[in-house]
Write a structure and sequence with these properties.
Blueprint: E1 8-12, H1 16-28, E2 32-36, H2 39-49, E3 55-59, H3 67-77, E4 82-86, H4 91-99, E5 104-107, H5 112-125, H6 134-137, E6 143-144, E7 155-158, E8 161-164, E9 169-172, E10 175-177, H7 181-192, E11 198-199, H8 200-208, H9 217-231, E12 236-239, E13 243-246
Parallel strand pairs: 1-2, 1-3, 3-4, 4-5
Antiparallel strand pairs: 6-7, 7-8, 8-9, 9-10, 11-13, 12-13
């Protein structure tokens, strides 16, 4: 049996106790960890070898460069998954981190098993496999683009949005659009139920694997906003009190 590939984690944490403990647990879970204590050092590590990392786990309050700004800089040039850590649990702070491009947000103090689960989740989303096709499940599907083959691999069109499930690419008005792994997973889940409403709780479970956590509606709301900004404000409809649906 082939041994699992070690994932490279760029850990940014200026608290020595938390950094050492987090690094140790990540390594025990099979990850290769590069630990830095300064936001500027993290940016330098990313710019020098960003492609070598699979995920960034960063504190928010850092010397040199804060974690939110670091995340924003990374997101300007890369879709590398970013998970933020912070002692601030106020919704304004959480939303600020998510709007900067973070894929997930864990508040301190955190249970290490919760953190490891969140890291595993963002890593899975970074290698998305298409959810079960609508055709296979009997559910609704988008209209196939003329000339595309039918079945699960067909290119689907939702208004101006074209989703290629084989290549996991998205075009809007014929132009390619770069989505983060989380945004792509979110779009795939909405596409699986195109024309039908998907609840926030269902999206939290299917996209983020958050079955036991509450008060995480910000994750869904902010990522839907980010996805709309890329594929069109009218592409995703909000059904108040219920959830979201992808417009066919």
């Amino acid at each position: 049996m082939t041994a699992p590939v070690a994932r490279r984690v760029l850990l940014v944490e200026d608290d020595a106790v938390i950094g050492e403990a987090t690094s140790l647990h990540l390594e025990r879970s099979g990850h290769a960890v590069t630990w830095v204590t300064d936001g500027l050092d993290a940016w330098s590590a990313f710019t020098e070898a960003g492609a070598a990392y699979d995920v960034v786990v960063s504190d928010v309050m850092l010397p040199g460069l804060d974690g939110v700004t670091l995340c924003r800089r990374i997101r300007e040039v890369s879709t590398l998954p970013v998970l933020l850590l912070s002692a601030r649990s106020d919704p304004v702070d959480v939303v600020g981190g998510l709007e900067a491009g973070a894929d997930d947000y864990v508040t301190k103090p955190f249970d290490v098993q919760v953190l490891l689960a969140r890291v595993r989740s963002v890593l899975r989303r970074a290698e998305p496999s298409p959810p079960a096709s609508s055709a296979a499940s009997g559910g609704p599907a988008g209209a196939a683009v003329p000339g595309a083959s039918g079945g699960p691999g067909a290119v689907e069109r939702y208004g101006d949005v074209e989703l290629d499930r084989r290549a996991l690419t998205v075009r809007v008005g014929g132009a390619p659009v770069a989505l983060t792994p989380t945004e792509l997973r979110l779009l795939l889940e909405l596409a699986d139920a195109a024309g039908a409403v998907v609840s926030r709780s269902a999206l939290l479970s299917r996209v983020w694997d958050h079955d036991e956590w509450h008060d995480d509606a910000h994750l869904v709301n902010v990522h839907v906003q980010r996805l709309r900004a890329k594929i069109g404000a009218d592409a995703i409809e909000t059904v108040r009190g219920f959830g979201y649906k992808l417009v066919r």
